[in-house]
Design brief:
Layout lengths: L2 E2 L2 H4 L4 H12 L13 E4 L5 H13 L4 E2 L13 H13 L2 E6 L1 H4 L2 H13 L5 E7 L11 H6 L2 E5 L3 E3 L2 E3 L2 E5 L10 E3 H6 L1
Parallel strand pairs: 1-5, 2-3, 2-4, 4-5
Antiparallel strand pairs: 6-9, 7-8, 9-10
Length: about 200
């Protein structure tokens, strides 16, 4: 499933979840890791903030703590090598990495670079792609189809259904790409976040 823009905003997300996540990002410090440790680095294009807020709410409801670089007050005002170094350190520190894979993010050099850092330091079992396409477009027109073939991705199951021989209730899941034998492993989002 490739989500359409606005999917996450249509969920009734409490502003308190979003405000708490943003507040924790603003005060994020490696020295305070005993007090607060973000679990998910969300790579995103800054033009996707509207979709990002709904995603933050969903992830927080599933037990995640979020880091959003655009909300980090320790980032330099002008993008620089210091920016890249801080992002690299935070990706290495966070437990999980999610790429909010909109068309804009897929074309962003920063998002490509962040995914490369995540791939190097978080490994495949701790990375997920959250694909989002423009409203009214076909899945086949989605620019990130290559990513969906090699990385786990976040999906939504609408009802209690049989997926690849397993029964799943309604909710968000992380689905790994098929292995050499064609087997697909699916994990509830909240469980994946804990792993």
């Amino acid at each position: 499933m490739i989500f359409e823009r606005g999917h996450f905003n249509s969920n009734k997300i409490e502003k308190a979840f979003i405000n708490e996540a943003l507040s924790e990002t603003r005060t994020f410090s490696f020295k305070k890791q005993t007090q607060y440790k973000p679990t998910v680095f969300i790579s995103h294009k800054h033009s996707d903030l509207e979709d990002l807020q709904g995603v933050i709410g969903v992830l927080e409801k599933h037990g995640a703590k979020i880091y959003i670089d655009s909300m980090d007050n320790k980032m330099p005002e002008q993008t620089s090598g210091e920016t890249a170094q801080r992002i690299k350190e935070v990706i290495k520190f966070c437990k999980k990495f999610i790429l909010l894979a909109t068309d804009d993010a897929i074309e962003s050099y920063w998002c490509y670079w962040e995914l490369g850092i995540g791939d190097t330091h978080r490994y495949i079992e701790n990375i997920a792609i959250l694909p989002i396409k423009e409203k009214g477009t076909y899945d086949s027109n989605y620019k990130g189809n290559e990513y969906l073939q090699i990385y786990p991705r976040i999906n939504y199951n609408n009802a209690f259904t049989n997926i690849h021989g397993q029964y799943f209730k309604e909710g968000y899941y992380v689905e790994k790409p098929a292995n050499k034998e064609g087997k697909v492993y699916i994990t509830e989002l909240s469980e994946w976040l804990k792993q």
